[in-house]
Amino acid sequence: MPAATPLMTTLVAGLSVALLLGVAARRAGLPTILGYLLAGVVIGPYTPGIYGDMAVAAELAELGIILLMFGVGLHFSPRELAGARGVAVPGALGQMAVAMLLGWGLALWWGWGHGAGLFFGLSLAVASTVVMLRALEERGESSTPLGHVAIGWLVVEDLAMVLALALAPLASALLRGDTQPGAGLWLDALGTLAKAAGFVTLMLLLGSRALPWGLSLVASLRSRELFSLAALVAALGVAFAAHAVFGVSLALGAFLAGMALGQSPLSQKAAEQTLPLRDAFAVLFFVSVGMLVRPAILWESPGALLATLAVVVVGKALAAGLLGWALGLGKRGALTMAAALGQIGEFSFVLAGLGLAEGLLPAAGRDLILAAALLSIALNPLLFALVDRLAPKSGG
Asked: How many C-beta atoms surround the C-beta of residue 1 within 10 A?
């Protein structure tokens, strides 16, 4: 790869190979996502030939997450978010607790210790935003009451991850037992939580007025390109500020920016203007996942990989389905939630990297998480096909 052009090489190689393998997957009757994931493996550092820059691919994938969550927020009002809390809050927290305990148990079974168990379990507990939203949009369910519950579930998971990342250094110090956490760690954790709460409050109270006003002002100039630029600046700018200033995730920042702009009559136009970029960068997200995977894990630790995959695709999905049914979603709603949450993604990579950096999660744990992410994402369309067989739309 030319050293001076990592961005161009990654874009061209990633999108070209994704196109070829996506077409091949489609013609074979397989999900196109599988082709995108395999494209990432092909251009990744663990296979010979042309390869992309992993750091660049990760940043491009973040753009896809931002634009996707911004688009979802445009069609989601604060009232709908509040209405979904009765199912989303207990459902998300309960499902995450079950998955975390299952992953923690596996880590202890393998002799990794409680520190590794904490990071391994948390990494298996949170679903991929991109995969879940893409599936709901393809099925026409993102704007339905069930879709609102699913998105609310995602928001709760996102906030829980903000909490987990804020407390991770403190928990690591306690679990290692090699140091007593000082007042600084406690203050850092509390400060992060306070900033996250402040950002959410700021967006709901001030952003819902300022962002629609700014978009309307640009729209009055009757320039298509300026309007598109304004929509992109709103999505990317708020997401970046949310992460850099307030310490929350880019996805949550973009979602709240979209929700604030959703109060404007121009929200539909903003969604249409950003759609082509959302689709292109969503593909790059799946390519970036494939690039992270070390294929050798498939034959080096097949038993451990199957056990990890079982926690994600069976244990986590079953917990989500049972909780959804108990909370009144009905048969089809519960099965849809089970399928939607039977995978892991972007937050899992962040947690795995943090656990490795803290010296608690072994490298094998990270490899298992990444491989399980690829396989669970590839299997996700099959879970939705099973939902349609067990509970057709006409059957409710």
From this structure: 14
CA 289 to chain centre: 11
pLDDT in tens, 283-301: 888 888 888 888 888 888 8
Structurally, the chain folds into a number of domains equal to 1
Sign of CA dihedral 136, 142, 150, 288: positive
Which ranges in the chain belong to alpha helices (H)? Answer: 6-27, 32-43, 54-74, 78-83, 85-109, 114-125, 129-138, 145-176, 183-202, 208-219, 224-244, 250-261, 267-292, 297-300, 302-310, 317-326, 330-340, 346-357, 363-390
Note whether residue 31 is domain-resident. no
Tell me whether residue 271 is in a domain. Answer: yes
**CATH code at position 243:** 1.20.1530.20
How far is residue 265 CA from its own chain's centroid? Answer: 28
Domain span including residue 119: 63-285+312-395
Q: How far, in Å, CA of 44 to CA of 297, rounded?
A: 15
Phi, psi of 143 (to 5 degrees): -105, 10
Cβ proximity of 70 and 94 under 8 Å? no
Examine residue 163 and state whether it is found in any structural domain, yes or no.
yes
* Residues with Cβ within 8 Å of residue 22, at least 6 apart in sequence: 32, 35, 36, 39, 283
Per-residue burial over 263-277, b = 16 or more CB atoms within 10 Å of its CB, e = otherwise: ebebbebbbebbeeb
Q: Per the domain annotation, does 199 fall within a domain?
A: yes
Residue spans of the chain under pLDDT 70 = 1-4, 75-78, 80-81, 166, 168-170, 172-186, 188-189, 263, 394-396
The amino acid at 168 = A
